[in-house]
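Hi R.,

As promised on Friday, here is the backbone we talked about, encoded as structure tokens. Could you run it through your design pipeline when you get a chance and send me back a sequence?
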């Protein structure tokens, strides 16, 4: 008989056996150690935990209630290992084989593009920015379409309002990756968060 532990991961409650908990706990600690910047660490870990909770929900489905070691292993394989967080200098020292392994993990990562409102490219609600990302098109095209529909009548206004209400905003790093159709892995989450921090720093310069 195994001990079952109740955990809160990404705002969702799961039941996990003790062996799986130890494995997951060790994994999260190893990932967290890769970050020195406290603000960066908090945001990345929040996004990683949210993504882990989504993957565990998919893995368990309606069949089981308890997370086991095999589930943790599968999820870690999708997300990637903490070693994927090596700095650029460390990456230069890696062998060719490890480079191929990293690329193989990226190829095997499941990518699902979803429609979100883009908070980083918006004039009003980010609807056009989100549509642009989803259809790989310049958001300006959708803005022109809505403006034309607006002058043609009120239909453009109401369509935009409905989409604004119906389409969720990409508020987390993981959602922004999904919006662009990028794999939600440790490496991509880290890169996205660091890029965002760099953009904030640039915008703060006078």
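Update: got your reply. Pasting your designed sequence below so it's all in one thread:
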């Amino acid at each position: 008989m195994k001990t079952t532990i109740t955990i809160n991961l990404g705002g969702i409650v799961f039941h996990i056996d003790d062996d799986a908990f130890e494995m997951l706990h060790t994994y999260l600690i190893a990932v967290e150690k890769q970050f020195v910047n406290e603000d960066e660490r908090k945001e990345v870990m929040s996004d990683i935990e949210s993504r882990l909770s989504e993957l565990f929900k998919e893995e368990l489905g309606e069949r089981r209630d308890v997370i086991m070691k095999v589930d943790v292993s599968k999820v870690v394989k999708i997300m990637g290992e903490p070693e994927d967080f090596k700095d650029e200098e460390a990456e230069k020292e890696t062998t060719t084989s490890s480079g191929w392994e990293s690329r193989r993990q990226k190829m095997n990562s499941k990518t699902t593009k979803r429609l979100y409102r883009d908070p980083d490219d918006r004039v009003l609600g980010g609807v056009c920015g989100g549509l642009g990302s989803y259809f790989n098109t310049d958001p300006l095209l959708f803005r022109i379409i809505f403006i034309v529909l607006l002058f043609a009548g009120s239909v453009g206004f109401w369509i935009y309002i409905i989409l604004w209400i119906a389409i969720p905003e990409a508020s987390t790093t993981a959602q922004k990756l999904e919006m662009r159709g990028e794999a939600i892995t440790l490496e991509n989450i880290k890169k996205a968060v660091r890029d965002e921090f760099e953009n904030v720093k640039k915008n703060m310069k006078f």
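One thing I noticed while checking it: The radius of gyration is 20 Å.

Thanks again,
M.
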